[in-house]
Automatic annotation (TrEMBL):
<feature type="transmembrane region" description="Helical">
    <location>
        <begin position="72"/>
        <end position="93"/>
    </location>
</feature>
<keyword id="KW-0812">Transmembrane</keyword>
<keyword id="KW-1133">Transmembrane helix</keyword>
<dbReference type="Pfam" id="PF02325">
    <property type="entry name" value="CCB3_YggT"/>
</dbReference>
<dbReference type="GO" id="GO:0016020">
    <property type="term" value="C:membrane"/>
</dbReference>
<feature type="transmembrane region" description="Helical">
    <location>
        <begin position="17"/>
        <end position="35"/>
    </location>
</feature>
<dbReference type="InterPro" id="IPR003425">
    <property type="entry name" value="CCB3/YggT"/>
</dbReference>
<comment type="similarity">
    <text>Belongs to the YggT family.</text>
</comment>
<keyword id="KW-0472">Membrane</keyword>
<protein>
    <recommendedName>
        <fullName>YggT family protein</fullName>
    </recommendedName>
</protein>
């Protein structure tokens, strides 16, 4: 049972790290949208390639993402990440504790 518990903890840690990294990528995308950077910059291209598919789905799903010219899709994605982190990752940690 210890092996299964350790695997669950490992999955929870990896998922937590990926969600935290993507959280900061979305923050970077929001900041970049305010300053209008060079679209050919490699960092800008990577950030946009990582975030635009998710933002597109949120914009398609929620019709009110533009309020007063402000794009709210990064905020919706950030809230989704926090909910996933609070529910799924914490549930995995609790499951691992019960398996010990």
């Amino acid at each position: 049972m210890f092996v299964v518990a350790n695997i669950v903890v490992g999955i929870a840690k990896i998922l937590d790290a990926i969600l935290n990294l993507y959280f900061w990528v979305i923050i970077a995308a929001a900041v970049l949208s305010w300053v209008n950077p060079d679209p050919y910059n490699p960092v800008v291209r990577v950030v946009r390639n990582l975030t635009e598919p998710v933002f597109y789905r949120v914009r398609k799903w929620l019709p009110f993402t533009y309020v007063g010219g402000l794009d709210l899709s990064p905020l919706v994605v950030l809230l989704g990440i926090q909910i996933i982190n609070s529910v799924l990752v914490q549930s995995l940690y609790q499951l691992a504790v019960r398996l010990y």
